[in-house]
Amino acid sequence: MLLIFIDGLGLGVSDYACNPLARFSPRVLNCFADRLGPLPRNGACLPIDACLNVPGVPQSATGQTTLFTGVNAADLLGQHLAGFPNQELKDLLRRESLVSRLKKESYSVNFANTYTPGFFKERPRWVSATTAMCEGAGLRLNTLDDLLARRSLYMDFTNRLLSRGGHQVPIWSATEAAEVLVRQATEYDLCFYEYFLSDLAGHRGTPAENEKVLSELDEFLFHVVSGMELDKGSLVITSDHGNIEDSCLPGHTMNDVPGLFWGPIRDQLDGMHRLDLTQVAPMIETCIRER
Ligand SMILES: [Zn+2]
Questions:
Q1: 230 Cα–ligand 1 center, Å
Q2: In whole angstroms, what is the distance from residue 139 CA to residue 216 CA?
Q3: Span from the CA of 240 to the centroid of ligand 1 (angstroms)
Q4: Which fold has domain 2-289?
């Protein structure tokens, strides 16, 4: 099972003026509020509600905690929480994340992202939901050595940011990066990867920069979808809240997010037309347990 989490990508309408995805022809992120697909290799796209019956605009800390635990974290706090999880959310992630639950039952899990030496030298006071989840579950975090051995990826998947930061690493094409991720997916019961330059671009990028981020991401995702053995393994691509799909609005949106599904997990979608963020983790766990 491979889960790719893309921060800040909602389902917008296919409007050339506001949605960067409507400015090129995405092969995988070909999912709009007014047109769901077609997707390669019999993939399915369902809208996922990220608002979760809690007033206000969806945010990262609560959205990601909900996605990874299946518990409505925004409802728990009574509000959508931006940025990094607070102690209450970290406790929830430690107790109830899909990684904690799967690890307890001896399933193998890999968080495919790479952490730099700086993270271990001076651990940041605030960490993302994914980091909190992995630490809470006692999962080993990948280092630059793992990346150099092609066992993990950096958050931009090309390694350009690492290289610019002075690290001696090879620059990977979208195809090479996808090969690394697909191989990890075959070696673990659950492998997951987080990409958040989409949310960053949604906050700060120009329309041209946003289009570039999404077209490069789409190419990477296309090679991942192409490389997966979908008779054996499933692939899920989703997000925590909207942002980059609407360049005409500043910041996050209240749009649904895309739920993209390939492989055996698709069987669970029969009769479903729209999900909410609490339903993704249980579906992934069911799929892994039934294998
Ligand atoms: Zn954001």
A1: 32
A2: 29
A3: 9
A4: Alkaline Phosphatase, subunit A (3.40.720)
**31 beta partners:** 36
The reported pLDDT for the residue numbered 250 is 84
**Ligand 1 centroid – CA 8 distance (Å):** 6
- Ligand 1 centroid–CA 200 distance in Å is 7
For residue 229, the CA-to-ligand 1 centroid distance in Å is 33
How far apart CA 195 and CA 181 sit, in angstroms, is: 13
Distance CA 26, CA 30 (A): 5
What is the 106 CA–ligand 1 centroid distance (Å)? 34
Q: What is the pLDDT of residues 143-187, one digit of tens each?
A: 999 999 999 999 999 999 999 999 999 999 999 999 999 999 999
* Beta-carbon-side half-sphere exposure of residue 2 (alpha carbons within 13 Å): 30
The string of pLDDT tens digits covering residues 194-240 is: 999 999 999 999 989 999 999 999 999 999 999 999 999 999 999 99
Sorted by where each begins, the domain ranges of the chain are 2-289
Give CB contacts under 8 A, 24+ apart, made by 133-138.
133/68, 133/93, 133/94, 133/97, 133/99, 133/100, 134/99, 136/90, 136/93, 136/94, 136/95, 136/97, 136/99, 136/100, 137/94, 137/97, 137/99, 137/100, 137/103, 137/109, 138/103
CA of 149 to the centre of ligand 1 (A): 32
Please report the pLDDT score of residue 44 as a whole number: 97
